[in-house]
Amino acid sequence: MYDVNKVRADFPILAREVNGQPLTYLDNGASAQKPQAVIDAVTRGYDNEYANVHRGLHYLSNLSTDRYEAVRGIIARFLNAGSEDEIILNSGTTEGINMVAYSWAAPRMVEGDEIVLSTMEHHANIVPWHFLRERQGVRLVWVDPEPDGSLDPAKVLAAITPRTRLVAVTHCSNVLGTVVDVKTIVAGAHDKGVPVLVDGSQGAVHMKVDVQDIGADFYPITGHKLYGPSGSGAIYVRAERLAEMQPFMGGGDMIREVTKDAVSYADPPMKFEAGTPAIVPTIGLGVALEYLMDLGMDNVAAHEARLASYARERFKALNWLNIQGDAPGKAAIFSMTVEGGAHAHDISTILDKKGIAVRAGHHCAQPLMEHLGVPATARASFALYNTEAEVDRLVEGLELCHRLFS
């Protein structure tokens, strides 16, 4: 039985007040709060165990190395990767996608080659491909979502041509909460000989992920959205793709030997991990993922589905509230506008006075905002520790916004 009150007790920040009101934290899509276990691991890592990894022979270096490298296996279990050697540790999804752009895509794409994207993508899964458009003449091909915010796999696959070299698509929209049928997209793209990058920043947070079942070639995740520290993350890269990639960052740790005349590289994944990493944040990420696996991602998904259903019913009674996207099975992410002239920033400011934290703006998804015909939205994104009572507080805050602007 999922006990949300017990879960909440694991997150010390949830006991605080903001503006004299109990904190209702609904900005999880941007960054999630941290359980005490993660906070303790980070504190311990700095106050009692810190040293640089891999190169030292002393006790603390060996201890840090063991804790750090253990995270690779934890991530492999969390994503059900075939091997921990398919896990590259990094600072998060943005670095992961840029690595794919520089290490895999740029060396094999020429002018006129195409990348298929959905209009729902976060800028992190857009801007690296614009680099290739600007610098190499690669063409970006866009697939719009349906009116309900869903993404039709058939339309994505229909956009593939003989010049398509990659499909890059989100697993779960950070704006609409749409869960994309990436397994169907991957299978269809592979039938046409096209690899697929699936942006897992939101997907891995809200559901159990099996990268082998999905079949993705690339699947990046971000630690701070997964209840871990900022600056931590990883990307799963299928072994076949790893063999095709060249390093794009050079430095310590990613080399086998360096001379004045030549350089040879370490085997993957170390080949793609240059320099001193985010040691303690990565250790904290491992603790966060173990926390999630102990809770059970199926249990987390079921709890959030109940919250989403309850919120949807409460929102239906507010005929002046516009929710962007209502695809079947969407995650508990709601982007909204209020009729009467309230800007998203007004909504966020008013809610903040009630202790309610939401996001306001374009959410790093400007092409989607343009498609929706809105300059910005206020976004309430729910997490494993949120409650129906917090949905009620949000509704009360939105009702205040409506009264003030009507």
TrEMBL record:
Keywords: Pyridoxal phosphate, Transferase
Protein name as annotated: cysteine desulfurase
EC class of the enzyme, as a word: transferase
Source organism: Maritimibacter fusiformis
Stated family: Belongs to the class-V pyridoxal-phosphate-dependent aminotransferase family. Csd subfamily.
InterPro entries (alphabetical): Aminotrans_V_dom, Cys_dSase_SufS, PyrdxlP-dep_Trfase, PyrdxlP-dep_Trfase_major, PyrdxlP-dep_Trfase_small
Residues annotated as domain Aminotransferase class V: 24-394
GO molecular function: cysteine desulfurase activity; pyridoxal phosphate binding
SUPFAM superfamilies hit by this protein: PLP-dependent transferases (SSF53383)
Enzyme nomenclature, EC number: 2.8.1.7
Coiled-coil region list: none
GO BP term, example: cysteine metabolic process
Cofactor field: pyridoxal 5'-phosphate
Cited Pfam families: Aminotran_5
UniProt cross-references to NCBIfam families, sorted A to Z: sufS
Catalytic activity, as annotated: (sulfur carrier)-H + L-cysteine = (sulfur carrier)-SH + L-alanine
